[in-house]
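#lab-general

N.A. 3:47 PM
ok so I finally got the sequence cleaned up, no stray characters, all 277 residues accounted for. can someone with queue access submit it? mine expired

B.Y. 3:52 PM
send it over

N.A. 3:53 PM
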Amino acid sequence: MPRRPHSLPHPSSTAALILGRTRLRPRLGIILGSGFGPVARAIDPEREFPYRDLPGFPVGRAPGHEGCLRLGSWHGVPVAVLSGRAHYYEGFEPAEVVFATRVLAAMGVDTLLATNAAGGIHPRHRVGDFMILSDHINFMGMNPLRGPTGPGEARFVDMTRAYDPGLRSDLKKAAGSIGLAVHEGVYLAVPGPSYETPAEIRAFRRFGADAVGMSTVPGVIVARHCGVRVAGLSCLTNLAAGLGKRGRTVNHEEVLSMARERLELKRRLIAGFLRDR
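B.Y. 4:20 PM
back already:
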C-alpha cells in the first residue's frame, strides 16, 4: 500500500471490524460532501458508526460534514454512506484523506457516488445547478498513490475513464426522470482553504475546467486504484470568484445555504440513481 502515517491501521482491518458488526454487505458507496449530509436520513439504517469510533478514520471539522458511516438499504440497494469527508486543507495527510474510501473498497463496495459542493466556472452555470463530473483536473499538489505499493498492487493507474460512462448515463437518466436539467463537465480540485482569485478562475477556465472545489479527486483516484467504478456529482452552490455580481465575494455560509436549499432535489436525484442499480 502507499505509505501512510504510522498510526493508520490497514484498511482491511477496519473493514473487517465494521462487517463483523452488521449483516449488511454494501455494494454501493456514497460520499456525501458539503450540504449533502442530510440526504443520509432517507436511508433505512441497519448500523451507524461515528468516525471517531472507527480505527484510522480521520475526524474532520469542516462545517456541513457530520462524520458518520451509515450502513443500510435505500430502494432495496445495500449502501455504505460516508456522511462527511476529511479534507486535505484541514491538515490531514493524503493517506488519511482517502482512508475511508479504501475501507469502502475493502468492504466489497464496487460502485462509488462522490458528491460535493463546487463553484461554477462555465458561463452557462447558475447558482443551484447540478453538474455530473465527466473528468477532473488535479491541482491539489498531491497524489494519494505516492509512495511504495503493496504486493500485487498497480504502480500506475489509468485515469482515462475516471468517471464511469455508464454511471454518468444513469445519473442523467435519473435527473431526467424528475425533470431536472443537469450539466456535465470537468471538476478542478485545489487544496484550499482559501477561495480562488478571479485571475486563477480565468486561468482554470482556459485549462478546461467547468467547476472548482477542494475535495473529491483524491478519493476518486484511490477508488479507481481499487477497481471501484465512480460517478461524481457537484451542486454548484456559488459562482467562482469574479463571475458573480461586481464586488460580490465568496463565503462558506453562502455555499452551505444554497446547498440546503437544494436538499430535496439532491435526495430525489440520488434516489433515482439508486433505482437503476
